[in-house]
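Data follows
____________
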Amino acid sequence: MCIRDRFWPMMKKFFTGWIWIPIYASITNMFPVKVYETPQFYNNNFFMRSFYLLIIGLSLKARYYAVFKIAEGAVAGSGLSYNGIDKATGKQKYDKIYMIDIFCTELCVFQRSIVEEWSKPVQLWLKNCIHRRVPCSPLGKMFVTFLFSAIWHGCYPLYIYGFLFYSITTVNFNYIYKMFVIYKFLRTPIFYLSLSVFLYFTACYFTSIFGMLLIERAIKFSRGVIWIPIVHFVFFCFVLILDTKKEKVHLDNPRYIRMKIYEAFKTDKELMGDPTEKAT
């Protein structure tokens, strides 16, 4: 393992991080976080406020994408992320230590997976040192872990509110996907797409709260996008009404939920049959 072998993996990660720097700078220049406390934000309609939430949330995430990827490049350059030889290509792998999966963070439809792939070393530390050692139920373990993570970031009211809100919405989304597995009438592309879009709005809401440095600004921002907590409350009531079947679904494992959803879709397709066969 020489420097020449790890040069291109290192530069690839550096380049990915450098790409996000101008993206962050350009978006922040046009849509700074301060826009949340200006009349320009509150006097706009629902769609414009939602657009501001998405674009500013993306800019705040881009800042972390750049930092995480540049850090990955530094780790790859030091050789600490060396992970053996790829049997398929015969090349050395430098993916033993990585900070973030940007593709999963932006496009994943499971909030729990987004949490697991964000700042991966910190997530592993929280999982092994906090989550597994808290003597309570899995739900209590999750809330304690999120609370500890908030205090670890800084004993600040906005951090505590943001992390607790994200933990509650994570549970909410898990139960929604449980209903998605159990009830066939929910397994429609429109509902699934709407849920994925709302998940992205929730992630941008949390990122914006996390990026606030003033409580007054955060309060004004929350009033402008109050529809996000309201929709989560509606989903919560919806789950309470439908959660009557005591079928066992492992809510702590997003991969298991993804597999069950795939199996449900496959079963629906088999029951409906192939329309070309019916035509013949």
Remarks:
- The chain has 13 helices and no strands.
- The CA atoms of residues 72 and 98 lie 6 Å apart.
- The mean pLDDT is 78.
- The first helix runs from residue 3 to 30.
